[in-house]
Every structure is written in C-alpha cells, then in structure tokens.
Amino acid sequence: MSSDGAYSHRALPVDVTALALERLLWGLVALSLIGDVATTFLGLHLGLAEANPVARSAIDGYGLVGMLALKAVAVGIGVACRPLLPAIYRPIIPAGLAVPWAIAVGINLYTISTIV
Fold it and tell me: Fewer beta carbons below 10 Å: N end or C end of the chain?
C-alpha cells in the first residue's frame, strides 16, 4: 500500500462543524470528569478501593484536591496540545479525555451497584 500524499476527508452524517463538535465534546469532558470524581468518591465512601495506582496515591495523599489536580493536569495537557493539530482534528483531544472518563463512570456505577 502506498500513499501519494492525498488524504480523503470524510464528512459527518450530520451538518456539524469541527468547532461545534469540539465544543460538544468539551462539554462531555466536563460531565464525565464530574461523574468520574463523584462516583469514585462515592465508591471509596462505600468501602471500595481505587484501582488506578496513580489516582490512588493522589487520593491517599491529598484527597479530593489530589484527584482534581490529576484531572486538571490531563485537561491542561489536552488544551496545550490542541493548537498543534489542524482544526478538523482538534475534536479528538476532548474525545480522548471524555471517552475513558465516561467508561470509568460506567464501571464505577456498575461496581457500586453490586454492593448497594
């Protein structure tokens, strides 16, 4: 397989700009961040343990502030790297933050539901 330098750009099935998509995804970042922090601390309150060793260390050492600092670093790296991408690809940054945190919320809710 070879490339002649031409790239095909696929259009989304709906009429939405990359900027509008990026804004929507940043909103999902905020919701998933809040959900992850809330469900994590609810689970900890109920006697569960944090599985991520980095997050566990931050929470054990600094509590909620440690967890929020970790999230702030992740968002800060995303925001700092955003200008490095062409505008059409910038929505990948908030998607890369929102999707894992949303999955974590789902896992946290499932785990909490097994003990309640």
Answer: N
CA dist 19 and 111 (Å) reads 36
pLDDT of the residue at 43: 97
pLDDT at 105: 98
Dist CA 92 CA 99 (whole Å): 10
Length of the chain: 116
> Which single residue is written with the structure tokens 């059409």?
88
Q: Where do we find the tokens 């789902």?
A: 106
Model confidence, pTM:
0.83
Residue 42 has a CB neighbour count (10 Å cut-off) of 14
> What residues have CB less than 8 Å from 18, skipping those under 6 apart?
87, 88, 89, 90, 91
Give dist(CA 101, CA 36) in Å, integer.
6
| pLDDT averages per 10-residue partition of the chain, 116 residues | 62 79 97 98 97 96 97 98 95 97 98 94
